[in-house]
Write a structure and sequence with these properties.
With 301 residues, this protein is α/β, with parallel strands linked by helices. It has 2 domains: 21-55, no CATH class; 57-80 and 109-291, Alpha-Beta Complex (2-enoyl-CoA Hydratase, Chain A, domain 1), CATH 3.90.226. Helix content is 37%, strand content 13%. The protein is built from 12 helices and 9 strands. A 7-stranded mixed beta sheet has the order 3-4-5-6-7-8-9, with helices on both faces. Strands 1-2 form a two-stranded antiparallel sheet. Strand 4 (110-117) and strand 5 (120-127) form a beta hairpin. It is globular. The relative contact order is 0.10.
Length: 301
Amino acid sequence: MNWITNYVRPRINSMLGRREVPENLWIKCPETGEMVFHKDLEDNKWVIPASGYHMKMPAKARLIDLFDNGEYEAFPQPKVAQDPLKFRDSKKYSDRLKDSRVKTEQEDTILSGLGKVHGLKVVAIVHEFNFMGGSLGIAAGEAIVKAFERAISEKCPVVMFPASGGARMQEGILSLMQLPRTTVAVDMLKEAGLPYIVVLTNPTTGGVTASYAMLGDIHLAEPGAEICFAGKRVIEQTIREKLPEGFQTSEYLLEHGMVDMVVKRHDIPETLARLLKIAMKKPASAANDAASPPVAIAASA
């Protein structure tokens, strides 16, 4: 079978002029099962056009979409110890890092940069979920701290886009130490009198939720995002009770006061700009800011 697969089929395809079709050419909507052409999905900011389902958005695309004209200064990845515990499960941790770097073309899960959002200078920090589930390790923690320090030196606000499964188990206690480190960085920003807004995306879980993801001055969330510390199945098995439908979604948390606003992805840059200008006591410089209707905040029933 290997001989047929590896030799005969490629020879036939080459003679007939056939080309391999990329596996991600069509993407299936998790809600409706609709197949969407990947270019159409990218053009619509990774939101399924028909159902409005918010797919995971790559970190680089997120930064380009947020900043004016897609222009920003990308912060370098801090140099940290690689695989300090020499960890191995079914695979070496060092090999997992190499695979994720090839897959995402990033050094680690955090991308950050300085740019302008509707003319207002902002530092943005974004998790790349495709890099080991957006997990928080030493490199990610150091990148977050450095981004906050840069925001303080630039006297500008910070916008955080978490998308993570939590702390990185392959780094053990060193990963958990990033929780207090990033919390201190948030406190330093607030002591400097600068706003910190968090845009919760799908998923935001574990140690990330237990630290900087829930310490914002204002918490926005994308529709349908899963936001929690422990997963629904773990909680149900622990308390031996069935949880409510839609438990831990952004809409459920909005109704119960854990999230301030649920905002569609297309409206996030404009919403952030208006909130930050209010927080920074800046005038609405653009005509669009003055003409647009007030931000809608869904009230709990």
